[in-house]
Input
Amino acid sequence: MLKIAVTGPSGLIGLRIVKLLESNFHFIPLLHSDFDITNRDQVLSKINSLDFDILLHLAGYTNVDGAEKEKNIAYQINVEGTKHIFEAVQNRNKQMIYISTDFVFDGKNPPFFEDSVPNPIGYYGFTKYEGEKIVQGKAMIIRISYPYGNPSSKKPDFVMRLKHLLDEGRELKMMQDASITPTFIDDIAVALKHLIINYKPELYHIVGSESLSPFEVGKLIAKQFKLNEDLIKPISFAEYETGKAPRPQFSEIKSKKNDFYKMKSFNEGLSRLS
Output
């Protein structure tokens, strides 16, 4: 059985991946309490002590708005931390999988495939792309987009956050002239299983099968959970973006390389949650 060391095992995605694939792989969780990825010596010491085949690097600074205000922290975690992990894995002659994001694109000429040229417009996307550059050609890079579908996570995904607000009767202003590509976490796990078994140091987009406007997403969530759809109000991208970190307007992400697992539409993923 392959031994997978995983950073961020208790996060939104990590928790679900470990649960779904624990009968296929032996997971070695690497918690923040075990070592600080921004500390090179701690990283080298910890990874040198492990018996593993592949390191799955899920840990990261993911607060898009926060990254604009805490640039140093975001850089230390997403760039320096990735560099330390990669160096330690390379020293052991082991394999690595780096999880990246659709935020490496500018959202201006969609759709975006694996061979599209990144051009991040926000600091979070910049740090994730810098992480990609560190490992490119020597580790597997998997870009994901708007993951959802782990109700047991302490940190709620965007579906659960919106559901909670609708449960409270809160009005939600959601963009009509923008697009996102929601991705069911269980699909990420199943696709990841295939990629681990057939490991290549290449770049893959593992994303949902359709892109929708946030307004459409909000309406579908309300409908699926039998909540008040009238609480979802349209807003423009320009209005929404005021005072927030720059975001890709049309984050329509597709894959030319995922011919091994059919990803779900947003409706199909939602139907598994209720």
About this structure: The first strand starts at residue 3 and ends at 7. The domain at 3-153+182-210+252-269 is CATH 3.40.50.720 (Rossmann fold). The radius of gyration is 18 Å.
